[in-house]
Design goal:
Layout (H helix, E strand, L loop, with lengths): L9 H9 L10 E4 L1 H6 L4 H5 L5 E5 H9 L6 H16 L4 E4 L15 H15 L13 E4 L3 H10 L6 E4 L10 H4 L2 E5 L5 E2 L5 E4 L11 E6 L6 E9 L2 E4 L19 H10 L6 E6 L5 H14 L5 E5 L18 H5 L4 H11 L11 H5 L3 E3 L13 E5 L7 H8 L7 E6 L15 H9 L5 E6 L6 H9 L1
Parallel strand pairs: 1-2, 1-4, 2-3, 4-5, 6-9, 12-16, 12-17, 13-14, 13-15, 15-16
Antiparallel strand pairs: 7-8, 8-11, 9-10, 10-11
Helix pairs in contact: 4-5, 9-10, 10-12, 14-15
Length: about 475
């Protein structure tokens, strides 16, 4: 006789629950961390929503983004919030999850925001097994964070989770290869070298040499029966043009420790060439990046090729007290501590000790036609007829560096200097830095010059420290 209760027996119900019916067999649940959305505020969410994925934003991620509206990444934070609102209004597959799961996990502390985000990840994982949950029926659970510490914690706390992957945001990541960073050498028979009317040596681009425009090699020629280095040659269409070895700017010459600094020679040639409107100088501490950029910019202004110099650097604080909001004065007073290296290099170039004085101000820079602009204040502006130097560019996101480059108007020269081994911004790595992203994407254009500086010229101590520390 059929029982009055039409519900299936308990065992049958358990069988249905354990069958893991995939209502969305080709879609995943993606739980996203704060740093990912700040890194790519425009397109990250759209990327995650592809293939019918469900995007989960933990409540504490949303709160962190809201708090960042008053930080140096205020524009990015506001862009993310607007994007979330727009997607939710369009009924996109996106959820802001308020619930957190701490049971059976004494390692999580509710007072720590990162722990609360992982507790939300646990809540989602738990509910993926419940047929009546909005998280039921998806293929996999993914946690995306650019914070190595968060990924380690998540791996430990979620070690027993099934179908869980933990990774960084891959879309804007790029890894510079050795070909991007090292100047190769090339032997060229002396008879193949031609001299132009401007006294520049050149030779035809060898078919075997795979070089992009403005990429260079150190050239050795068999002059006087022995192979000797004669200079750096860069590709200019179908020719390799040997650059000027005797180049200098504002009295500053390429510096070396007893041998020719071909990288600085290449950098000076790119910096002083008005046809190259964007230069990237990447290299370690003491390789001369900022000095070369400033000396060349001041030289070009002396030649009346540009009307002035604008300098910026991402103000990344080491602690809360050194944040812009905690420092006294107006925005330009607050920004001064981040441009102290600029004052020091200008003192070296001009041989004027006033720039080393603790009383040196921005008005002293204005006297030599130099002004500053915090990165966040560049949005909406269009620069023209100036040289714009962005120091410490390794601390920029891909979105920020694109914003800066798109501010360049007619007759602007952009100079980015940075060290991919010294990234101070949380959640940013050598692979996700905007500097690496721009170098990789923009190389090969005749308008772009890229130089990796490896020779330390600051002092033997700095050279040794770079090797062992």
């Amino acid at each position: 006789m059929r029982p009055k209760n039409n519900a299936p027996p308990k065992a049958a119900h358990q069988e249905v629950a354990s069958a893991k019916i995939l209502l969305h067999p080709h879609s995943n649940i993606i739980v996203v961390d704060t740093n990912v959305l700040i890194q790519d505020p425009v397109s990250a969410l759209s990327e995650f929503l592809k293939s019918g994925n469900l995007v989960v934003i933990p409540w504490w991620v949303f709160m962190e983004i809201d708090h960042l509206k008053k930080s140096s990444v205020s524009h990015e934070a506001r862009t993310v919030i607007k994007k979330i609102e727009s997607l939710m209004s369009a009924r996109a597959n996106i959820v802001i999850e308020l619930n957190e799961y701490y049971a059976q996990c004494s390692q999580l502390d509710k007072s720590i925001p990162d722990h609360r985000i992982i507790a939300t990840l646990r809540y989602v994982a738990k509910n993926m097994r419940r047929p009546n949950s909005q998280y039921y029926g998806y293929n996999k659970l993914k946690f995306i964070s650019n914070d190595e510490g968060m990924r380690i914690m998540a791996n430990i706390i979620m070690s027993k989770a099934v179908n869980l992957s933990i990774d960084s945001y891959q879309k804007d990541q790029t890894k510079l290869s050795k070909d991007d960073l090292i100047l190769k050498t090339l032997n060229v028979p002396y008879l193949e070298l031609k001299q132009s009317e401007s006294n520049r040596l050149s030779f035809s681009l060898p078919k075997s040499l795979k070089l992009l425009e403005n990429s260079g090699v150190i050239v050795y020629a068999d002059k006087d029966s022995s192979w000797q280095p004669i200079g750096v040659a860069v590709r200019k269409q179908k020719q390799m043009v040997v650059l000027n070895n005797q180049i200098k700017a504002s009295g500053i010459t390429p510096r070396s420790n007893g041998h020719a600094n071909w990288e600085q020679i290449m950098a000076f040639n790119f910096l002083l060439d008005p046809s190259i409107s964007c230069v990237f100088l990447q290299g370690g501490a003491g390789t001369g990046k900022t000095l070369l950029a400033l000396a060349s910019a001041m030289e070009l202004c002396k030649r009346n090729l540009y009307t002035g110099i604008v300098i910026s650097t991402p103000p990344i604080p080491l602690d809360k007290e050194s944040d812009l909001g905690f420092l006294p004065g107006n925005i330009y007073d607050k920004f001064t501590p981040w441009i102290l290296p600029i004052f020091q290099n200008i003192a070296l170039i001009t041989n004027n000790p006033i720039y080393l004085s603790p009383n040196a101000t921005l008005s002293d820079l204005a006297k030599i036609n130099i002004s500053i602009a915090p990165p966040g204040y560049m949005r909406g502006q269009t620069l023209s007829k100036v040289i714009f130097i962005i120091d410490e560019a390794q601390n920029l996101t891909a979105h920020q560096i694109k914003t800066i480059i798109t501010r360049a108007g007619e007759g602007v020269k952009l100079i980015f200097t940075g060290d991919l081994t010294q990234i101070d911004r949380a959640g940013l790595t050598a692979s996700s830095s905007g500097l690496a992203y721009a170098i990789r994407r923009m190389k090969g254009s005749p308008m772009v010059g890229i130089v990796n500086l490896s020779a330390v010229v600051r002092s033997p101590l700095v050279e040794y420290a770079n090797k062992v520390l």
